[in-house]
Amino acid sequence: xxxxxxxxxxxxxxxxxxxxxxxxxxxxxxxxxxxxxxxxxxxxxxxxxxxxxxxxxxxxxxxxxxxxxxxxxxxxxxxxxxxxxxxxxxxxxxxxxxxxxxxxxxxxxxxxxxxxxxxxxxxxxxxxxxxxxxxxxxxxxxxxxxxxxxxxxxxxxxxxxxxxxxxxxxxxxxxxxxxxxxx
Amino acid sequence: xxxxxxxxxxxxxxxxxxxxxxxxxxxxxxxxxxxxxxxxxxxxxxxxxxxxxxxxxxxxxxxxxxxxxxxxxxxxxxxxxxxxxxxxxxxxxxxxxxxxxxxxxxxxxxxxxxxxxxxxxxxxxxxxxxxxxxxxxxxxxxxxxxxxxxxxxxxxxxxxxxxxxxxxxxxxxxxxxxxxxxx
Lengths: 183, 183
Description:
about 180 residues
């Protein structure tokens, strides 16, 4: 099927909420068959995530409380991009702020769209290596715990369904293929 | 750090939008240091996704227009759960509705949280095998293109950053590890 038979045309857009993180709009679109449909859309400024792997094959991880699911999650370092910020710069900044790690080498692992059905957020992924440790400097209202675990154990946890966070699952499996030659 | 030093306590909640797919709330929470912070949260009913792999090692894929990013995406079959629906039943239902495929075997690949910082959506993932082809029966307002491609080519595309959708990246890499013994 040609793309033109899949595309939806915007008819109207209504602003619902203009928050600090999320911008919510409720749009009406024309479907390929001419019918109208409603689309609930979250606009997001974009984010970056970094899987930092040491020479010993361990990963610098974070434990962080996630209010929407009321649970402490295991995740790789990540954060929102500043307006206009380059993803690579943002990745280096977030990594150093949250963990105190400076990466000598950043390898782009591509992008991920967490929920393209209703959200335009795009997260650029990096593998950070050649790591140096400095002081971390969290925002005053940021609470997270930094720890280290073997990449091989993280791969096992991802495969056994013990890691829920999408960006962490993807970067763990990609980093393992790249670093351990399972290409 | 103990979990109690990470947890945020809800203080108040304001409903912003009660849509067909998204329920948006703007909450105030108490941080571990006693300060207050605002949390913008999307409530979602949950979803299921299925990677259907044939005996020949090809994957039944979909091309679908995603309005929030104004682009046709390559994705595995997926859909929202009906209220109270079991994820396994929902996965079998979505797979048959969208592709006409009936799965003889469904292997759970765990869950994924696409965006735990601001959304409570949980997607249960399945690997579908022992496939039989029937007729698909799309909703009247659903437009998507079904096609087949080798799992090995999808793995290459995921590793080269050519597949953006998070659930597709995760399930492709997990299915490859399981089916091709890269455990």
